[in-house]
Amino acid sequence: MSAASALQIDSFPSTDGQSSEPLGSSTAAVPIGVTDQVVHRESAVRDLLRSLQPGNEEVRFGTASHSLQVASTLPNRDRTVESSTIRVSQTLLAEWNGCVLAIEDHYFSAALKGIYGEGVRNEQEDAEIPMSDVGESDRELLRPGNLFRLCVFYEIQENGQPRRYTQVIFRRLPAYRSQDLAKAAERASELYRTLRVE
Amino acid sequence: MGPGYGESIVVHLGQGEWLLVDSCVDATDNIQRAAPLKYLKALGVQVNLAVKLVAVSHWDDDHVCGIAEVVEACSSAMFCCSTELTQREFLKFVESISDGATATDGGNVGQFRRVIRLLGSRNQTILGAKPGRQLFKYPVVKSWSPSDHDAMQFLNYVAQMHPHAGEQMRRAIPGSPNETSVVLSIDWEDASVLLGADMEAVSDDHRGWGAVVLEANRIGFVRGGVVKVPHHGSETAHDPRMWSDLLLHQPISVIAPFGRGPIASRPPKSSDVRRINGLSSAAFLTAKHSETKLPVMDFAVKRSLREGNIRLSSQRSTLGIVRLRRVFGLPWRHEMFGAAVRAK
Question: Can you tell me the distance from the alpha carbon of B332 to that of B225, in angstroms, rounded to the nearest whole number?
């Protein structure tokens, strides 16, 4: 895996007071540390990436201490990021794409496809996930067929204590549009006319 | 054969002609080719010419994996499914849910869409399965379901699943009610077989096995000496009338277990196998339940999942095949391949 693709991007707060933009669909390109809700794109990160020299042995990624090393290479105007970065450093250990299959009383079952992690990538598994792992704001999305990501993170907390945790992040896909559904109905009628059923 | 993932039945009708019921894939096969095609090709069968009938018992994930590949390859075969799968309402559902397929991966609805389009473009006749309908002349292949009541249930199910404007796009989860399964019988001159699909026992005699048995008794039925036990041998599919009215005393039973999810919840349970053994002269499982090891993961990941009470089970269960053969006038002989085991 190249250094760029293994880069951990932590939750950099915006330094200029502007709201940051959710990363969204670029997840696949940067598999580590990227979630819709947790990670935000920050121009400082881009500057930082540009400032990194290929083959720089001191810059290694993927562990809690790396954010410190990375932060030390930041240009002056981004120094404010450093202190924030030290507070919480988060590393993605594993990630799956999931699809809700059925909902039971205390858990939901899902089909998972691994997208990142040792022994995870490209593997397909079934999972039973406790209902308590679904955030209150995501409860309405807990429906068969809906898609989510399951992530396992490792982080160093403010007090220096390490912590591992799992997170279920539901995807918010576009809605069906009435004009598309009308077109689908037309296609279905056309298809129906071509079928010879005895 | 089963479960890699799902189940499929391959029947040599005689004279080099074949019938395929459902399709499944070998979960350990990275290419995920349709297992019945792989099997027939290994036997040297030219599937484009020799397969005369392809039947889909119902629209459920474990019965339609690879079905588009099967229909595509078996170009001269007749296609049979329950009439409801060709209704305008179902096609509308398929087309609508496919709108989000780029984002949602479509699930197996894409397989069925391909099948329907292929049959439409070939201008091929689809045989709609109904109770007592003859689908093939010799051996006599007949369908015994779904009943009109169950067909109505299916259309209700489709209506509930149909996407509405403003709803978030989602993947279709194939899982039509099991009572809409197509039960088939095959009658040779001296032997009969009952293929129970996923048919369930329902208290209402107009539905499920009750309806099948009523219709069979009304029209007349040649009792089977071999049965593909319905719905993975589960208790919910057990109707004593199937055993007493549609089968010979102590038939040979073949069970295709369900190969996904936690072992404790997979049918058949050991009590189911005991029940089926008690009713059969011989019983076979296409695969024994066994926990397929998960790939080696980072220890921290495994621990986090365990601590979070998230239970994973591998989808890579091994394929098994039970082969039953007989020569005219002689008893059935069995062979087992892969993960298949004899239960009695």
Answer: 9
- Residue whose structure tokens are 């010419």: B49
Are B319 and B3 in contact by the 8 Å Cβ rule? The answer is yes
Structure tokens at B316: 């890579």
Residues of chain B with C-beta less than 8 angstroms from the C-beta of A176: 96, 99-100, 163-169
Q: Which of B86, B91, B170 sits opposite A145 (nearest CB)?
A: B170
- Inform me whether the C-beta atom of residue A147 falls under 8 Å from chain B C-beta atoms: yes
- From A77's Cα to the closest Cα of chain B, the distance in A is 36
- Provide the CA B111 distance to its chain's centre, in angstroms: 15
Residue A165, both tokens: 């945790």
Listed range (A18-27, A116-125, A168-177, B89-98) with the worst mean pLDDT: A18-27
Distance from the A2 Cα atom to the nearest Cα atom in chain B, whole angstroms = 20
- Look up tokens 């989860």; give the residue: B173
Q: Does A1 touch chain B (CB under 8 A)?
A: no
Apex CA A145: angle with CA A141 and CA A149, to 5°?
65
CA distance B25 to B259: 12
Give Cβ neighbours of residue A179 (< 8 Å, ≥ 6 apart).
Answer: none
Contact criterion met (CB below 8 Å) for A147 and A84: no
Crossing angle, helix B88-98 and helix B109-122, to 10 degrees? 120
Q: How far apart are CA B282 and CA A155, in angstroms?
A: 57
Q: Do B304 and A141 touch (CB under 8 A)?
A: no
The token pair that represents B191 in the structure block: 């032997």
Q: Check residue B73 and give its pLDDT.
A: 97
User: Inter-chain contact A175–B166, Cβ cutoff 8 Å?
Assistant: yes
> Are residues A31 and A88 in contact, defined by beta-carbon separation less than 8 angstroms?
no
Contact between B23 and B64 under an 8 Å Cβ cutoff? The reply is: yes
What is chain B's mean pLDDT, rounded? 91
Among the partner residues A112, A119, A166, nearest to B295 by beta-carbon distance: A119
Q: Read off φ and ψ for residue A37, nearest 5 degrees.
A: -95, -25
Min Cα–Cα distance to chain B from A106, Å? 11
User: What does pTM read for this prediction?
Assistant: 0.80
Length, in residues, of chain B: 344
pLDDT tier at B105, thresholds 50, 70, 90: low
Q: Say how far apart CA B184 and CA B224 lie, in whole Å.
A: 11
Give the number of A-B residue pairs with CB atoms closer than 8 Å: 181
Radius of gyration, CA atoms only, chain B: 20
Q: Letter for the amino acid at B156?
A: N
- How far apart CA B321 and CA A68 sit, in angstroms, is 57
Of A120, A125, A147, the CB nearest to B315: A125
Beta strands in chain B (DSSP E): 9-14, 17-21, 51-55, 78-82, 125-129, 133-136, 140-143, 184-187, 192-195, 224-228, 247-255, 282-285, 311-314, 320-325, 333-338, 341-342
Q: Is the pLDDT of residue A54 over 60?
A: no
